Structure to design on (326 residues):
């Protein structure tokens, strides 16, 4: 299967510098601070993630990177250019997958790609060669003449990603790309992104799905209320802020707090962290089986229990005191 090429040497871009470099980046809307002096850098070829709940400042940061929203303060370099003053030059080298599909529903799959390519000034000859590759990449060659309104949600997202590659971008921005998709469609989309990653495409992903960030990102920052709470690879963050395993206990409705206190009293001075959520009690330990047996011996009986490995959700809970999906 052919995968569309992405450029790594556009004119005017210093390939030795980070593709994105933010220093104390800030965005204000009146008295509200959406992005609060954050700093990070994205080297060429990295799959970088911004992980956080809705309203954390992820999409606002993406809009500044995408040169469609001016920063209020700090410094920002994208493709070795300043988005505040060189927006058109940056946008010409970007691929963007927005949160909501903005495809033309009345046009066919092919015509959507063609019209978008013409927007970037690509010739008919270039598009005739490129569109079949993009359709193959998106697993849509048999839908080339189908109107977009007749596609499934997963097909539309794959088409949106294919469209974002029409100009062979130096940088691909993915803003919540799998929101609203069923699990099968999400995994198909992940496969398309893996293929781009293997080709060395620089990508920035915003998501509130921790499994998505763990699967796709080389490195990420955890963002909450416009601030960076932690930065590193998914494995590094889990190792630094969580234990190896977590025991999930579910009790009768309305009994989580009461039983959470009981769990804490049993574990006593063992330096084991316990988090009480509205629907479950989480116990963090390197050997969750041992902890589960101990609680049973003290007649702590949950309605159901589950032992799993720690995830980025647990990292976020440790850093902010609340669940990522709150």
């Amino acid at each position: 299967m052919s995968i569309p090429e992405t450029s790594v040497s556009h004119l005017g871009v210093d390939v030795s510098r980070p593709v994105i470099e933010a220093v104390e980046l800030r965005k204000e809307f009146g008295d509200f601070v959406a992005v609060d002096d954050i700093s990070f850098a994205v080297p060429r070829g990295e799959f970088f993630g911004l992980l956080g709940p809705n309203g954390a400042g992820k999409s606002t940061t993406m809009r500044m990177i995408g040169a469609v929203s001016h920063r209020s303060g700090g410094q920002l370099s994208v493709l070795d250019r300043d988005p505040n003053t060189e927006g058109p030059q940056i946008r010409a080298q970007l691929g963007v997958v927005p949160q909501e599909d903005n495809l033309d529903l009345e046009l066919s799959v092919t015509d959507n790609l063609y019209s978008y390519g013409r927007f970037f000034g690509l010739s008919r000859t270039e598009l005739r060669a490129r569109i079949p590759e993009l359709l193959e990449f998106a697993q849509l060659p048999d839908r080339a003449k189908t109107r977009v309104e007749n596609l499934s949600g997963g097909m539309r997202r794959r088409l949106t990603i294919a469209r974002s590659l029409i100009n062979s971008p130096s940088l691909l921005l993915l803003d919540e790309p799998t929101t609203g998709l069923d699990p099968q469609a999400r995994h198909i989309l992940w496969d398309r992104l893996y293929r781009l990653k293997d080709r060395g495409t620089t990508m920035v992903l915003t998501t509130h799905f921790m499994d998505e960030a763990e699967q796709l990102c080389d490195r990420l920052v955890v963002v909450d209320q416009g601030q960076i709470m932690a930065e590193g690879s998914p494995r590094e963050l889990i190792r630094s802020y969580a234990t190896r395993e977590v025991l999930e206990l579910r009790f009768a409705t309305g009994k989580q707090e009461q039983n959470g206190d009981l769990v804490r009293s049993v574990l006593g001075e063992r330096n084991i962290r316990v988090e009480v959520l509205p629907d479950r009690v989480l116990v963090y330990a390197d050997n969750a089986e041992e902890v589960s047996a101990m609680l049973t011996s003290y007649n702590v009986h949950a309605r159901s229990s589950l032992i799993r490995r720690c995830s980025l959700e647990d990292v976020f809970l440790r850093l902010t005191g609340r669940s990522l999906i709150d």
